[in-house]
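Reference record:
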Amino acid sequence: MPDYPEIRALKDFIRQHSVSVDASPDNQDIFNLVPVIFTIQNKKQHCYIQDEYDDLQLNDPCVKVVLALREFELIEESTDYLNWCTMMGIEANSEVIRNYYQDTVRIIPKFKAYFKRNKITSFIPDLDFQLNSGAMKSLRNR
């Protein structure tokens, strides 16, 4: 199996900051977004994951962390709630999702402190994720 620096960095990040992603007790999907609990340094945050490739079914904890971090990246990159809904391809008429977005926007600055250069990263390049190549293919095939 190839040795990817992205995977090494991801594993180091998970270990250094005690990062995990677990099923949410509220396991009701909303707009095909799967609720999970993201934990970093014993701080828990709800996260809704768009799991179009069924990656949450894989047993690799690294894959689950990548999925959650990708969601936080998208929220950080969005200009506002409506922009994020458009990026996600979901309707903006859910109070639960709107509250989730607003809560996550408030918590992201605290999460950024755990990352180099104070920028959230999922460690895996977007193209690798989308095309199932490189580091992401290696993670999915473990």
